[in-house]
Amino acid sequence: MLHGMRNGIILILFSFFLLGCNQSPSPVFQEEIRGLKLVRLITGEEALLAINKLHGKKINVARGMVAFYQGEGEKATVWVSESACTDDAMQQTESMIEKMIASKSSPFSDYKQIERNGMKICSFKGMGQEHYIFRISKSIYWISANPGAIDELRKSIVG
Question: Following DSSP, what letter does each residue of the chain receive, concatenated?
Fold first, then answer.
């Protein structure tokens, strides 16, 4: 009984997290996308810790989510960090991309600016996958996936 109640509270809190982003469309992490199954979704404090670990330092993020997908010999990760305001998100996105491009030790290459449904995306390759970084309002997205799956993931999550 207590376990079921705890899960219910977690679901309610997760729903509030999704509804609380009134300026940003809420990401929707489907259970399966193009043969990739959602194997883990982290939110809250755990997501903020993972985002800080990814950057190697504490960054100014109000909320975060990380979704891990897996399929036959494929995997994908979707990182979402929400800033306090759109200007902060814009600055963080530009700064991150500039630092990655300038870094001589970066494992990433082939940086391109592409457009999908009117959305500007920084696309690049590295670590055996393709990567998209883009911003919607105050949310920054980083999707890592195989080239055949990355657009499907982006479409399913942000429309």
Answer: -HHHHHHHHHHHHHHHHHHT-SSSPPP---SEETTEEEEEEEEHHHHHHHHHHHHTS----SEEEEEEEEETTEEEEEEEEE-SSHHHHHHHHHHHHHHHHH-TT-SEEEEEEEEETTEEEEEEEETTEEEEEEEETTEEEEEEE-HHHHHHHHHHHH-
Backbone angles phi, psi at 16, to 5 degrees: -65, -40
Check pLDDT > 50 for residue 32.
Answer: yes
Which residues lie closer than 8 Å to 26 by C-beta, 6 or more apart? 18, 19
| 3-state secondary structure (DSSP) of residue 149 | helix
Tens-digit pLDDT profile for residues 128-152 = 999 999 999 999 999 999 998 999 9
pTM of the predicted protein model = 0.80
Task: Look at domain 2-158 and name its CATH class.
Answer: alpha beta
